[in-house]
Design goal:
One of its GO terms (biological process) is methylation. The chain is an alpha/beta fold and 229 residues long. Helices cover 44% and strands 21% of the residues. Helix 2 runs antiparallel to helix 7 and helix 7 runs antiparallel to helix 8.
């Protein structure tokens, strides 16, 4: 079984994402019912990349989240610690500078980027606060952070239905479309264990970022957090 546990040992998480890389984008599109496209658009709008700015897209996977930054004229660096993801991404998007890197020890100098972003990857870092501190280290003063992550639906009845979907419907759907469906059991468990909107804002502030705020997407299934250095 290729999956990680909630202690999120880096070697286990890396192998898990290597195993799902081949059909990762297709699986995400199916499991999110196409909502992942809207979430990516919201990230771009929140970062608001300007031509010539340097943007770090951490946990970029195959680069699907990175390409829109390049389309807007920014100099984007897709970074991920799964070599399998990077290989799939480089084959599809050879023009992007895919870079291997651990979220707790980024291979970049201090104050390198105008903006840093991570989508659906922060909860997979073994120490999320350390990852947020690293993102702050490589961001210039006045630069901005955008975190897009699964969160807690704000309407209690919907939250109950959503959790039922995660634990009961998601695994069989993943078996139909994913190259490594067992990994999506971890996905469901990690979403359930993740802090709510306020909890993540407090984590961001604790890592040294200023004025964290958020807005809910899809009824709170996903939250978009922003902060500045």
């Amino acid at each position: 079984m290729v999956r990680a546990e909630l202690d999120k040992q880096p070697s286990d998480v890396r192998r898990m994402f290597d195993s799902v890389a081949r059909r990762y984008d297709v699986t995400n599109d199916v499991l999110s019912l196409g909502q992942d496209r809207n979430w990516r658009k919201a990230v771009i709008a929140a970062v608001d990349p300007q031509p010539g700015e340097r943007v770090l897209d951490l946990a970029a996977g195959t680069g699907t989240s990175s390409q829109p930054f390049a389309d807007r004229g920014a100099s984007v660096v897709p970074c991920d610690f799964s070599l399998g993801m990077l290989q799939v991404g480089k084959k599809a998007k050879p023009h992007l500078p895919f870079t291997a890197g651990d979220g707790t020890q980024l291979p970049f100098a201090d104050e390198t980027f105008d903006a840093v972003t991570i989508s659906f990857g922060l909860r997979n870092i073994v120490d999320p606060e350390a990852g947020l501190r690293e993102l702050r280290r490589v961001t210039r003063p006045g630069g901005r952070l955008v975190v897009c992550e699964f969160s807690h639906p704000t309407w209690a009845p919907f939250r109950t239905v959503y959790l039922e979907y995660l634990m009961k419907a998601l695994p069989p759907i993943a078996r139909a479309v994913s190259s490594a469906p067992d990994a999506y059991v971890y996905l469901a468990e990690s979403i359930r264990a993740w802090p709510d909107q306020r909890g993540l804002a407090d984590l961001i502030a604790g890592a040294g970022w200023d004025s964290p705020q958020w807005r809910d997407l899809s009824g709170g299934i996903v939250a978009l957090h922003r902060a500045t250095r």
